[in-house]
Every structure is written in C-alpha cells, then in structure tokens.
Amino acid sequence: MSKALVVIPTFNEIENIERLLRNIFALQRNFDILVVDDNSPDGTADAVEKVKEDFPNNVFLLKRKGKLGLGTAYIAGFKWALEKEYDYIFEMDADFSHNPNDLIRLYNACARDGFDMAIGSRYVNGVNVVNWPMSRVLMSWGASKYVQFITGMNIYDTTAGFICYRRQVLEKINLDKIQFVGYAFQIEMKFKTYLSKFKIKEVPVIFTDRTKGESKMSSGIISEAIFGVITMKIKSLFNSIDI
C-alpha cells in the first residue's frame, strides 16, 4: 500500500475519471486513489470499477446515496484515509483542472520539505488559469483576495481545491465540526490549518478549466463562501471557532 492517498469526489465524471486514474498510476511515484462517488447516474462508479480490475490494491471506491456536497465527500474520504493509516492525503478534482503531474510536487513539499499543507496555487505567482473567461478569473482571484484580507492568512489562493495534507493536520482538525459543504469548505480547512499553526506552502500550478463534463459551480456556493468567511473570522476573534 502507498502511504499517499488521492481523494477524488465525483458526480457525473464518466468522460474524465478513467483517463485521470490511469494518468495518476503512470506517475513515477506511487499513489493510491479513493473515489467518492455521489451516485452518479452516468456510470462514473462503473468506470472506476473497471480501472480497479487492473489496480485492485490501489483503487478504492466509496459510493454514497446521493449528491451530498463537495465538503462532505472530502470529509468521508479523509476519515477513510485516517482509518487506513495513510501519511499524506490529497484533494483533487476529477476534471483534469488539476494536472496529475503536480501531485509529485505537492507530495515533495510535505514529505521532503517538511510542510504540513501544500496548496496547488493558481495565484502565488501571478494568475495561472487557462480556459476561463476573464469574468470568472476576476471573481475567483477577487474571492481569494477577499478571504486573505478578512482572515489574515498569508495565502494567495485561499479557495484552491488541489491540496496535500500531512495526516497530523487531519487528525488535529475536528472533521465533524466542519461547517461548510461547498466552495467555503476549502477556505474553512485552510483557516483551521492556519489557526492550528501548521506550516503551509503554496506550490505554483497551472489550472486548466474542464474541457469535458459540466461545472458544479453555483451562486449558492459562492454566497456561502462570502458570508461564511466573515462568520469564521468573528468566531476566531472570540476563540469560539471549533478546530
């Protein structure tokens, strides 16, 4: 068993998932993969099972009853990873917006360089986003700046979803107390890691928007992030935030 696990939430990713898993297994470093599928009607889980036939000891599938939200999918994956005693746990999208080759760079930042959280950052060296309209780039970049300003975190890409955690981070954070399920989940995890005084590294990556499948972004997810950040910050000032 690899000591590194990549957690990939899926909902209707039939066009991407098999190719993504095989690309990860082609890397020079060994990673295990846990796919957390929210009962995708397009057969995503069946595609994962197909790859599992070739990699029976490295591909794992957690099937859920329905579309329960990104945050809860990752939390389920994190708990599974801790139970299986993985040392390094990754978040990664299923749509190739995150380059599988960058998994090694995130891993090295934690395993070799001693950081507790490594973030695949779109904004630490300028703006590295491909195939997004300017309006979405500005919204995402502005959201990260807003979060950075409100929380005081020295993190340029506060909403990034491409991350490596050392297991000690996930053991420290009370996963049952994570409040947000959408876009704000990524911010909450970074904020609690920051409040816990863990060492955080931003690794520059190029983010490429999906070419297949549909985006899961919505206005409700964005509003959760905007108002959730203020709530988190206020609670932290009064030491009432649950870590």
TrEMBL record:
Gene3D superfamilies: Spore Coat Polysaccharide Biosynthesis Protein SpsA, Chain A. GO terms for biological process: glycolipid biosynthetic process. The lineage of its organism: Bacteria, Pseudomonadati, Bacteroidota, Flavobacteriia, Flavobacteriales. The keyword Acetylation does not apply. Keywords: Glycosyltransferase, Transferase. One of its GO terms (molecular function) is dolichyl-phosphate beta-D-mannosyltransferase activity. This is Dolichol-phosphate mannosyltransferase. Residues 6-173 form the Glycosyltransferase 2-like domain. Belongs to the glycosyltransferase 2 family. It comes from the Bacteria. One of its GO terms (cellular component) is membrane.
